[in-house]
Each structure stands twice: as C-alpha cells, then as structure tokens.
Amino acid sequence: MNKIIAAAATLVILAVVNWAIWDKEQQLAEGEVVYLALAPVDPRSLMQGDYMALNFEIGNRIREALHERQSGEGALRAADGHVIVTLDEQRVAHFQRLDSDQQALADDEMRLRYRVRNGRVEFATDAFFFQEGHAERYEPARYGRFRVNEQGDPLLVALYDDDFERLITAIAR
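Now predict its structure.
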C-alpha cells in the first residue's frame, strides 16, 4: 500500500511540475510583449558570479504611490499588487495608477503584477545573470522585455538597448 501511495504522490508531483513548465513556456511563446525602462545597478556577487541588479523606473512611481497610500507609515511593507500601465508605440509601459480591486481597464491599459520586498518594487525578477567577464556587454541595457500573461504576471525575456536591439541572452533569476 505504501508503494502505491508513494507512486501516486510521485506522479502527482511530476504532473504539477510539468504543468508549471508548460504554463511558463506558453507565456513565453504567447504572452503580450511589454518593455519596462531600467534604472540598473551592476554589482558583483562572489557567490553568484556577475549579474545586474534590476530596478525599473516604473517601480519608482509605484513606490511613490504606495507611500502616499500608506500615508507616512514608514518603510514599505512586503506586498503584492497590480499596477495599471499604458503602452506607447514601442510597447514601453508607463505608470497610470495602482490597481484596486481589479478595476475595469480601458482599451489602451494593461495590468502588471508587482511585489514589494525589502522596500524594493520588483517585477518577476530582481537580477539578470550573465557570464563572468561580460559586464560591458550589458552596460547599454535600457529596457527589460517581458512577456505578460492574462493575469498580469510578467516573465523577463531579455535586455535591450536604447534602440530596442536585443543584448546577448543570459539567465534571469
């Protein structure tokens, strides 16, 4: 009986993991393309190798709006939420407002999920890893290209320069 339970549990775990992988692959293939302007920092980690810590300009606007909403409560608390953005002709997202209770969207608006951790606003990832010694290749990074699913969850695809030229592919955390 224990062997049957163990086998069934293993099959369920494998099914859940494979479904999660399939879901992310679908999002990468079919998600809506959105660019977020970067305000990058480029530290080095002795344990992790070279990486670019990602900070997005729209995150600064979200942080300001959250401070206004919290009305002087001090440091931002850990939170998850959605921001409403509009996209320009290059599909760069621009802050409109924080979402409250799944508001109806105008035709030119999109909902993006964000999270606040340690006072920082993050979208999908807070770092972009690349091969050691290749930091200069990523210095011109100005945009993160994301694929966004219907729930507003962004996945980082690549980094792009001012002219929307893709920089060499690396691993996003």
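The chain has two domains: 1-30, 32-172.
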